[in-house]
Task: inverse folding
């Protein structure tokens, strides 16, 4: 990724291209609304309360907007490393590789953040995320294979640290059960899965 700082990477131009323009963004409000509905419906299926949510790298606040509209009683906390995004969208400025809250959250959302971190920072971030997860993690992190086979490099910022899925799984498995579709259940979460619901 070179030596771009977070402030150079996640500026107004970045948000305009990857979030603002329908022509160059991967996901907009409609797509994220479907994702939010899917994630929360699965947690409802497993009878997991969603009283608290932490959004790590909240971007323009699409998850927050959805929760505000559809689950207004949920206590929602959003963080971003970008000074620009915090000023524009009202998030707390936090670096997930260096910060962890004292409390845990029923759902932690981390979408599109980890590939921007180098290996050491990413490993620290995963430890911090695991410590703050009380129930479930929704994780999206593009891998080397995704960049080669899935991502549209016009709509996806591929100037990231390319890692394998195995690299991420090796660091997630001590803490989580992989449920699938980006969902990871904390190992001590009070939920039982059918055998074929989990990896």
Result:
């Amino acid at each position: 990724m070179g030596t771009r700082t977070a402030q150079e990477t996640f500026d107004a131009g970045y948000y305009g291209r990857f979030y603002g323009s329908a022509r160059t963004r991967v996901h907009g409000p409609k797509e994220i609304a479907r994702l939010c509905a899917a994630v929360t419906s699965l947690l409802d299926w497993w009878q997991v309360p969603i009283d608290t949510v932490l959004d790590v790298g909240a971007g323009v606040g699409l998850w927050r907007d959805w929760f505000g509209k559809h689950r207004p009683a949920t206590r929602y906390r959003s963080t971003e490393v970008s000074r620009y995004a915090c000023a524009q969208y009202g998030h707390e400025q936090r670096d997930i590789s260096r910060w962890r809250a004292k409390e845990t959250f029923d759902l932690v959302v981390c979408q599109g953040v980890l590939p921007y971190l180098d290996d050491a920072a990413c490993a620290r971030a995963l430890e911090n995320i695991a410590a703050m997860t009380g129930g479930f993690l929704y994780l999206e992190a593009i891998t080397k294979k995704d960049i080669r086979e899935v991502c549209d490099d016009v709509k996806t910022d591929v100037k990231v640290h390319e890692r394998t899925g195995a690299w991420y799984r090796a660091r997630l498995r001590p803490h989580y059960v992989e449920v699938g579709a980006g969902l990871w259940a904390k190992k001590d979460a009070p939920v039982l899965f059918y055998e074929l619901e989990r990896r």
